[in-house]
């Protein structure tokens, strides 16, 4: 599933440059994750880098509105990288 940045976000800008899929951008008030580009870093890293660098506990969580299997996330990675 894609990830979601909650309203706990303090706009520290730690997550945006770490995203290998350019899925994170500044929204109206806080950073947002584009679910069409988020692969939870599958294909790049073992765990999501945005969660690893975020200084706020539980600020970046699984997005219940965008549930995806690991296979779907890996397929999305392949498409985003132009490997398909």
Which labels suit this protein?
84 residues, alpha+beta, Alpha-Beta Plaits, two-stranded antiparallel ribbon, 2 helices, 4 strands, 14% strand, Ferredoxin, 4Fe4S_Fe_S_CS, 4 iron, 4 sulfur cluster binding, metal-binding, electron transport
Short structural summary:
The protein has 84 residues and is of the alpha+beta class. The chain has 2 helices and 4 strands, in the order E-E-E-H-E-H.
Model description:
The chain has one domain (3-80): Alpha-Beta Plaits (2-Layer Sandwich). 19% of the residues lie in helices and 14% in strands. The chain has helices at 49-53, 70-80; strands at 3-5, 24-26, 31-33, 60-62. The strands form two sheets. It has a two-stranded antiparallel ribbon with strand order 1-4. A hairpin with a 4-residue loop joins β2 (24-26) and β3.
List the helices and strands and how they pair.
Elements: E1 3-5, E2 24-26, E3 31-33, H1 49-53, E4 60-62, H2 70-80
Antiparallel strand pairs: 1-4, 2-3
Shape: globular
SSE pattern, N- to C-terminal? EEEHEH
Determine and state the CATH class.
Alpha Beta
Low-pLDDT runs of 5+ residues are none
Task: Return Rg in Å.
Answer: 12 Å
Largest sheet: 2 strands, antiparallel
Under the CATH scheme, the architecture is 2-Layer Sandwich
Separation, N- and C-terminal Cα atoms: 20 Å
**Total number of β-strand segments?**
4
Count of folded domains? 1
Report the portion of residues in β strands. Answer: 5-15%
Percent range for helical residues? 10-25%
Structural class: alpha+beta
**Which fold does the CATH topology refer to?**
Alpha-Beta Plaits
- Enumerate how many helices there are, as a single number: 2
Mean pLDDT across residues: 95
* Order of neighbouring strands in the sheet with most strands: 1-4
InterPro entries: 4Fe4S_Fe-S-bd (IPR017896), 4Fe4S_Fe_S_CS (IPR017900), YfhL-like (IPR047927)
Organism: Photobacterium galatheae
GO molecular function: 4 iron, 4 sulfur cluster binding; metal ion binding
Protein name: Ferredoxin
